[in-house]
Write a structure and sequence with these properties.
Rna Polymerase Sigma Factor, Chain: A; 16 helices; binds nicotinamide-adenine-dinucleotide; seven-stranded parallel β-sheet; binds magnesium ion; 3 domains; alpha/beta; Rossmann fold
Length: 390
């Protein structure tokens, strides 16, 4: 029986994780659940999964949750704030942590899980993009097991040998190929992108996801973040990580070897597959995902990404090559710009323009500790807000 904490239980990944866990009551027990503000939803999950602890974002939310749980006679203990998130990520009784908070807010608890040597199921790509080497050092020092949930990285992980250890050359790995659906604006005339609405941007053709990652998919900043994520997870330089547009989202990514072999992982686009893979690794369990019917899909298409249409992808490659804090600065600017877009404060194309301006203004600096990293993150957020207000 594995005991699991789920950070971001009310989100899209949290929901899929609980769906898989509920199929295997003999294998997994929920130790703790977290949510930021959706308290009634979290109360329902506590009633169903009976965790020992639940963590929310504020004292007011904690009071509200405690009341709802008392009414339902659920004995879950309620806490709030970042320290409590770090506690449920590192408690001795926890075996695995699903890191599924969106954005930089997930960094501290995800890092706490890594430092505590847990099995870390990493959905929160922003945490790794920001902290890069510091995160990988924490994993190496504690002996934590880092399992990617992002479908592309989970696919690459499945196509690599078990003893890979971030050493492409030792295993004949030539290139890592991340597939991308291209999002909702793959075919739309580029000149009209300035006018797209938040609702159009979050209407992803293949995946149902949270709003932030959906906008990131529309700009392809999501794929940019994933290129950086792949660099840290698999030890490949930017030059050996490719992005390939594949609108059907059936091939989830590939590894190209020096002998000409290309290994791919395929499946229906449903996050329960990578979640079940990581939960059970190295075993396999049923996920509830329908079997893949390739004859029904009939055609798989591929094309190279157009960097004029998707400037965020280029910004991410440039940030990875620049090293230091550039990726963290880019991530922070993106979070602020996407939020401004979703709230109607800026147009869609302003997202990439604002991020480019922030990266021009704030030079990349070496990242040696989390305190320094968070200072640069805060400065990038402030600079982005100033540019948006101007
Ligand atoms: P979501 O918006 O559906 O859910 C986000 C979760 O984080 C919620 O439970 C929310 O309560 C919590 N949260 C939000 N802000 C918080 C804060 N400030 N402090 C603490 N908790 C907070 O997002 P999602 O689509 O589930 O994505 C979660 C993460 O997984 C993201 O990093 C995303 O990039 C990654 N991811 C998602 C998918 C997907 O299919 N949804 C695929 C790959 C990777
Ligand atoms: Mg992905």
């Amino acid at each position: 029986m594995q005991s699991i904490s789920i950070l971001g239980a009310t989100g899209s990944i949290g929901e899929s994780t609980l769906d898989v866990i509920a199929r295997h009551p003999g294998l997994y027990r929920v130790h703790a659940l977290s949510a930021h503000s959706r308290v009634p939803e979290l109360a329902v999950l506590c009633q169903r999964f009976r965790p020992a602890l639940a963590v929310v974002g504020s004292a007011a939310a904690a009071d509200e949750l405690a009341l709802l749980l008392a009414e339902r006679r659920v004995a879950t203990e309620v806490r709030w704030g970042e320290a409590a998130l770090c506690e449920i990520s590192s408690a001795p009784e926890v075996d695995a942590v699903m890191a599924a908070i969106v954005g930089a807010a997930g960094l501290a608890p995800t890092l706490a899980a890594a430092r505590a040597g847990k099995k870390v199921l990493l959905a929160n790509k922003e945490a790794l993009v920001m902290s890069g080497q510091l995160f990988m050092d924490a994993v190496a020092a504690s002996g934590a097991i880092l399992l990617p949930i992002d479908s592309e990285h989970n696919a690459v992980f499945q196509c690599l040998p078990r003893d890979y250890r971030r050493a492409p050359d030792q295993h004949g790995v030539a290139r890592i190929v991340l597939t991308a659906s291209g999002g909702p604006f793959l075919q739309r005339a580029v000149e009209t992108l300035d006018n797209v609405t938040p609702d159009e941007a979050v209407a992803h053709p293949k995946w149902v996801m949270g709003r932030k990652i959906s906008v990131d998919s529309a700009t392809m900043m999501n794929k940019g973040l994933e290129v950086i994520e792949a660099h840290w997870l698999f030890g490949a330089p930017a030059e050996r990580i490719d992005v390939l547009i594949h609108p059907q989202s059936v091939i989830h990514s590939m590894v190209s070897y020096v002998d000409g072999s290309v290994l791919a992982q395929l499946g229906n686009p449903d996050m329960r597959t990578p979640i079940a893979h990581a939960l059970a690794w190295p075993a396999r369990i049923a996920s509830g995902v329908a079997p893949l019917d390739l004859a029904d899909i009939a055609q798989l298409q591929f094309e190279r990404p157009d960097l004029q249409r998707f400037p965020c992808l280029k910004l991410a490659y440039d940030a990875l090559r620049a090293g230091g804090s550039a990726a963290a600065i880019m991530n922070a600017a993106n979070e602020v710009a996407v939020d401004a877009f979703l709230n109607g404060r800026i147009g869609f194309r302003m997202i990439d323009r604002v991020i480019a301006s922030v990266l021009e203004r704030l030079p990349s600096r070496p990242v040696t500790d989390i305190g320094g990293l968070l200072e640069q993150d805060a400065q990038a957020r402030e600079t982005t807000q100033e540019l948006i207000r101007a």
